[in-house]
Specification:
39% of the residues lie in helices and 21% in strands. It is α+β, with helices and mostly antiparallel strands and 580 residues long. It has 2 domains: 166 residues, Penicillin-binding protein 2a (Domain 2) (Alpha-Beta Complex), CATH 3.90.1310; 299 residues, Beta-lactamase. The strands form 6 sheets. Strands 2, 3, 4, 5 and 8 form a 5-stranded mixed β-sheet that branches. Strands 10-9-19-18-17 form a 5-stranded antiparallel β-sheet, with helices on both faces. Strands 1-6-7 form a 3-stranded antiparallel β-sheet. Helix 4 packs across helix 5, helix 13 crosses helix 16 and helix 15 packs across helix 17. The longest helix has 41 residues.
């Protein structure tokens, strides 16, 4: 064998060896892959299923809606309507950012702003693009079939009575959490608890199948408010008209059910529409009837008279000598518009005598007067539970000076809310029993607390009837067919350096019908402009308008029907007989 042949033979053997080695290597790799595939798909197939589920199964929230708020007759005041919120997974959506202008057009947002939000959130998997779209808009978004764009079902609060009940009902934020009013006070009751479900999603993040329910949603409980929407509309319309006609700064009306303590109407001006979030400013949405305090002026005098009767020093027939028409207490001289001379307690209220009521207060022990005022609820929160309620201001008698006791008698140096004053009057209307205030409809009245004797309450009520009759200061509060008991009040507003001489608060507080009171109502008009500013001219007519319609709507029987003329009756009978 030549050397060349031998070399070729060695080369051929080396080639065969290399080929064999390569084939052996690939056979080994193939065998390993087959073994691994068999292991995963046959012996350990649960692993692959788990990995698939991790990539395609997701847990989604099932939104729960808040409970409905209704008035005492079932009329809706706050309801939850379904809406859709659009959200994105920025990482998945990134390849389709060219579609941002079209998406922004449907969402009604600026394209550049939307692009900026998406690009700044590439490290996130969840980003809200637009909350609370109507379902039709949400379907337009889904029709684009963009990767990483999804829709979530939520609920939005809607208030059918809008600004008529805005101050009382309040509103929720965009996450459906109560922020003001009953929505906040009863948030724990109204709020629902979201559920959860497991869904199967495709590679674009779209849900394609509901796999299982993890936990069902628990919707919020309904709440029945105490107000009667008919009376609420009536009070709202009347107050709005009064504020406009007197060019007043603001006003409030509170109507209480004397028999139960329930608030049947509560309105304020200016108001706001809770469906329009652009109107959410504290100046507009705070409930002045509960949060704002004022000096009640002469409307507090019936409580002072009640304290005098409760002391045992005075009887309803007692006479007070107010001559010469003024009284001096410390550095201050308190005057009436004219010298009324010797007058009864009834005349003190009917003619609103500052001198007479001051003399009553000064003849009482400070603790006696303070005890009666606190029994009527002054200086304390009511039981309304309303967020932000004010307790008013009643300084402890141990800090009083003689002038403090004197000015308190005609409503200065003490502050109340319209609701507090209405509650105090309701106690007079309920024969001395004061029931807890309730903003929720009651199945039965709560237990009452006696604050004054029945004899005192009845006596004061009769005195207050004279205020509304001819010769009294509140004749414009009279209501045809009904006996009315009430009191006017006009107070200077406190300003820097003392009391303003041209800014007033006009008040009327009263009961109807006086023979067996059903309603206790307080009207407060803040800073009426023009020539008319007394409570008798501004607040009393508002009271009359609200009461006349409210008593009719509640079917309260009249207690002051005019006496029928016997001659007219006889004549009518004669005519009927003749016609037959």
């Amino acid at each position: 064998m030549t050397r060349g042949a031998e070399t070729k033979q060695k080369t051929a053997r080396r080639f065969v060896g290399r080929v064999t080695l390569v084939l052996a290597f690939f056979s080994l790799v193939a065998a390993s892959l087959v073994a691994r595939a068999v292991h995963l798909q046959v012996l350990d197939k649960d692993f692959l299923n788990q990995q698939a589920d991790t990539r395609h199964l997701r847990t989604e929230e099932i939104s729960a809606h808040r409970g409905t708020i209704t008035d005492r007759n079932g009329e809706p005041l706050a309801i939850s309507t379904p809406v859709d919120s659009v959200w994105a997974n920025p990482k998945v959506f990134a390849p389709a950012v060219d579609s941002v202008p079209e998406l922004a057009g449907i969402l009604g947002v600026d394209p550049q702003m939307l692009m900026g939000r998406v690009t700044r959130s590439m490290d996130k998997e969840f980003l809200y693009l637009k909350r609370h779209l109507n379902p039709a808009q949400a379907q337009q978004v889904l029709a684009l079939k963009l990767p990483g764009i999804n829709v979530k079902r939520e609920y939005r609060r809607y208030y059918p009575a809008s600004e008529v009940t805005g101050h009382l009902v309040g509103f929720t934020n965009i996450d459906d959490e109560g922020q003001e009013g009953l929505e906040l006070a009863f948030n724990h009751w109204l709020a629902g608890e979201s559920g959860a479900k497991r869904v199967l999603k495709d590679r674009l993040g779209r849900s394609i199948e509901n796999v299982e329910s993890i936990s069902p949603p628990h919707h919020g409980k309904d709440l029945q408010a105490s107000i009667d929407l008919r009376l609420q509309y009536l009070a709202y319309r009347t107050l709005k008209s009064a504020i406009k006609s007197h060019d007043a700064r603001s006003g409030s009306i509170v109507v209480l059910d004397v028999k139960t303590g329930e608030v049947l109407a509560m309105v304020n001006q200016p108001t706001y529409n809770p469906n329009d979030r652009s109107q959410f400013a504290a100046e507009r949405y705070r409930n002045r009837a509960i949060t704002d305090i004022f000096e009640p002026g002469s409307s507090i005098k019936p409580l002072v008279v009640a304290a005098a009767l409760e002391s045992g020093q005075y009887r309803p027939s007692s006479i007070v000598d107010t001559a010469p028409g003024y009284v001096t207490v410390g550095p201050k001289t308190i005057e009436d518009s004219r010298n009324l001379g010797r007058i009864s307690l009834t005349t003190i209220l009917a003619r609103s005598s500052n001198v007479g009521v001051t003399m009553l207060a000064m003849n009482l022990q400070a603790d006696q007067l303070w005890d009666t005022m606190t029994q009527f609820g002054l200086g304390s929160l009511t039981t309304s539970g309303f967020p932000g309620e004010s307790a008013g201001m009643l300084t402890h008698f141990s800090h009083w000076q003689p002038i403090s006791q004197a000015t308190l008698a005609y409503g200065y140096g003490v502050s109340v809310t319209p609701l507090q004053l209405a509650q105090a009057y309701s106690a007079i209307g309920a024969d001395g029993n004061m029931r807890p205030v309730s903003l929720v409809a009651l199945d039965r009245p709560n237990d009452a607390e006696r604050v004054i004797t029945k004899d005192t309450a009845v006596a004061v009520r009769r005195m207050l009837e004279e205020v509304v009759r001819p010769g009294g200061t509140g004749t414009k509060a009279s209501v045809d067919g009904y006996r009315i008991a009430g009191k006017t009040g006009t107070a200077w507003k406190f300003a820097s350096g003392g009391y303003s001489q041209d800014k007033y608060i006009s008040i009327f507080a009263g009961l109807a019908p006086a023979s067996d009171p059903r309603l206790a109502t307080v009207v407060v008009i803040d800073e009426p402009s023009g020539e008319l500013y007394y409570g008798s001219d501004v607040a009393a007519p508002v009271f009359a308008d609200v009461m006349s319609e409210s008593l009719r709507l509640l079917a309260v029987p009249p207690d002051a029907m005019p006496a029928r003329d016997a001659g007219s009756v006889m004549q009518a009978r004669t005519i009927r007989t003749t016609s037959q």
